[in-house]
Amino acid sequence: MKDSEVAQRGLVLLGCGKMGSAMLAGWLADGMPATSVWVIDPKPSVWLQAQGVHLNAELPADPAIVLVAVKPQMMGDALPSMRALGNGSTVFLSVAAGTSIATFSATLGAETPIIRAMPNTPAAIGKGITALIGNDRATDAHLDMADALLRAVGETVRLDSESQMDAVTGVSGSGPAYVFHMIEALAAAGEAEGLAPDLSMKLAKATVAGAGALAMAADETPAQLRVNVTSPNGTTQAGLEVLMDDAKGLKKIMKETVKAAADRSRELARD
After folding, report:
1. Which residue in 85, 82, 83 sits closest to 9, CA to CA?
2. How far apart are CA 204 and CA 199, in angstroms?
3. pLDDT tens profile 43-83
4. Smallest Cα–Cα separation from 75: which of 53, 102, 52?
5. Which residue among 54, 173, 229, 249 sits deepest, i.e. has the most Cβ atoms within 10 Å of its Cβ?
6. Which residues are within 8 A (CB) of 164 and not within 5 positions of it... i.e. 6 or more apart?
7. pTM above 0.85, yes or no
8. What is the DSSP letter of 59?
9. Residues facing 54 on adjacent strands
């Protein structure tokens, strides 16, 4: 990334909380010069202050990209401060949940290249996945630039339309919390069968992490991986008969869970 347009023209990071810090750490580790980064954050962390970036300083006249990482409730105050960079060649990339492309266009101008993205919290350890979609002013080159930045914290996928973002929020945006709760539930179930709490939690964490890693690495589908470990009339089959019950099993619960999160995402976009 050292010789990229971003490094040459500059990158502005508006907001540097957990997600912004994770991305900044990834960029710097990937070779982006700290002097190519401007960060606007009213309460910079000790870590941020030590990175050598331009902190709350005057911005470059024509940065390659402004990455908006403020909390949604702060957007009304933060975004208007960037209006001078709108309607130009600067790309605006938002990782703020619930803020539509139309909202950005209304504030920054209709000619502004805007890309909306939805990362998730495993980005903090470089294991995230981010979905992105651009407006009609965002070119393939702009999307490629956003991809390169977002890949510093994990994988990326591109959407066909912004309307898909609510479903993405329900699956991958909120999804880590579902998995964390599954770990809690699996550990509690182990305790109920007589395991010590620490041991049961260690087994649950490692099992979910290992199964996820195997699902990512294997050529087989998750369905086939499930079949591979299910012996006829064995212990796994006995457990799956409960988990895969059509009326009250995991598939039904997960469908309702994702729908509730996606519906709430739609509500927030209307507020």
Report:
1. 85
2. 9
3. 999 999 999 999 999 999 999 999 999 987 788 888 999 99
4. 102
5. 173
6. 131, 133
7. yes
8. P
9. 38
